[in-house]
Amino acid sequence: MILDDLVQATRARLVKDKAAKSLATVQAESEHVGSLNPQAVYDSFLQPGIHIIGEVKKASPSKGLIAPDFPYQQIARDYDQAGVAAISVLTEPDYFQGDLAYLEVIAGQVTAPVLRKDFIIDPYMIYQAKAAGAKIILLIVAILTPADLRVYFDLAQELGLAVLVEAHDEDEISQALAVGAQMIGVNNRNLKDFTVSFENSQRLRNLVPPEVVFIAESGVKDPADVQALEKLGVNGVLVGEALMRSTDKASFIAAAQG
Ligand SMILES: O=P(O)(O)OC[C@@H](O)[C@@H](O)c1c[nH]c2ccccc12
């Protein structure tokens, strides 16, 4: 299963990253970041209407290379100017050709909060995210034990980071709610076979109370898909590949927001 490969690759990366820079150093760097306001992030998604998270993603395991020339700064600025609610930046290098350095550069250039999209399996990565300027991190329930999910969620909160907790079935939604998640993402892409179905978002929507942000992730092809998801009552939609390929990102985002 692809998730296992991703976790293994992430473990190997952590060994290298920690050898290059100690946890103490990354912690010290994270302390230089000014105070954050995670509640403002959650509140912005709870405003009426549909809120777009635009993703900066060069490649993916399901689609291969998406953006051969990858003007990531321009892409992020385009998203920002179009009024996205957040910008997701892939930082996973082995399968998504991401880089934490992309996130750091982007965070210095945009006003929208930046989300670290990675396979977080160690507190080190949470400090790294904050030090690089992320305001939101992703925690994927499927790759964490319930105990680790709680520890990482609490650490992120302590650091002032907002957390998007990714769940893909009823049990994972319960786990997310149990740790106190205020923003839950349901992935429409099945990571076992890569099939996409909005039925996931539809089925799980009612399990998440209205005061908790609900984000539908993956598989959006065009603005009409965003509007279809809006009708299911989701607060936000995470759009990667379709926006990356769009030659007019501003119009895509404007049309999606209706
Ligand atoms: O490119 P898409 O189909 O619009 O998907 C974006 C985003 O949802 C997807 O990249 C994603 C969702 N959850 C993840 C977890 C890790 C890596 C990537 C993801």
Summarize this entry quickly.
It is built from 13 helices and 10 strands.
Structure characterization notes:
The protein is an alpha/beta fold and 258 residues long. It has one domain (2-257): Alpha-Beta Barrel (TIM Barrel), CATH 3.20.20.70. It contains 13 helices and 10 strands. It has an 8-stranded parallel barrel, surrounded by 9 helices. A two-stranded antiparallel sheet has the order 2-3. Helix 6 runs parallel beside helix 7. Bound molecules: indole-3-glycerol phosphate. Indole-3-glycerol phosphate is lined by residues 55, 57, 117, 166, 187, 217-220, 238-242.
Q: What is the CATH topology?
A: TIM Barrel
Tell me what portion of residues adopts beta-strand conformation: 15-25%
Shape: globular
List the quaternary state of the chains: single chain
Q: State the helicity in percent bands.
A: 40-55%
Number of strands: 10
Low-confidence stretches: none
Give the N-to-C terminal Cα separation: 38 Å
Q: State Rg.
A: 17 Å
Which class of secondary structure composition applies to the elements?
A: alpha/beta
Overall number of domains: 1
CATH class: Alpha Beta
How does the major sheet shape up?
A: 8 strands, parallel, barrel
GO molecular function: indole-3-glycerol-phosphate synthase activity; phosphoribosylanthranilate isomerase activity
Pfam family, one: IGPS
Domain Indole-3-glycerol phosphate synthase: 3-254
Family: Belongs to the TrpC family.
Short key terms for the protein model shown above:
single chain, 258 residues, alpha/beta, TIM Barrel, two-stranded antiparallel ribbon, binds indole-3-glycerol phosphate
